[in-house]
Amino acid sequence: MVMCVCSSWAGSTQLAKLTFKQFDAPFTLTWFATSWNCLFFPVYYIGHLCKSPERQTPRQRLRECCRFFGDEGLTPKVFFTKVAPFGLLWILTNYLYLQALRKINTTDVSALFCCNKAFVFLLSWIVLRDRFMGVR
């Protein structure tokens, strides 16, 4: 699994670098890469249908997944206070990653981008008040 993740990450970085030779639009590439994430819930749901002995409708499964945000689910208040800031950070991070690919070597960009996990951990600790300290 680790080899697959590493291979896909290195391949996507190289393809993004090659894309900039013909198509110089980092924000469009950011939008395109982010919009593909919308496909992951249906893929997850299909896997859940194949694996789970209990059958749920897509609406029931979506509500169950939204309970992650609290008892009321994904409300507008929760969306604008917790989800939207992370969405903006996601877009900004990917945009700056692609901008860096335009300017410096792909190996250096990948090494710098690997540090984002520490910042995600710190932000989840501060904003979401997640007290998981297993990384220490």
UniProtKB/TrEMBL annotation:
The keyword Disulfide bond does not apply. InterPro entries: EmrE-like, Solute_c_fam_35_mem_F3/F4. The chain crosses the membrane at residues 25-46, 79-97, 109-128. Keywords: Membrane, Transmembrane, Transmembrane helix. SUPFAM superfamilies: Multidrug resistance efflux transporter EmrE. This is Solute carrier family 35 member F3b.
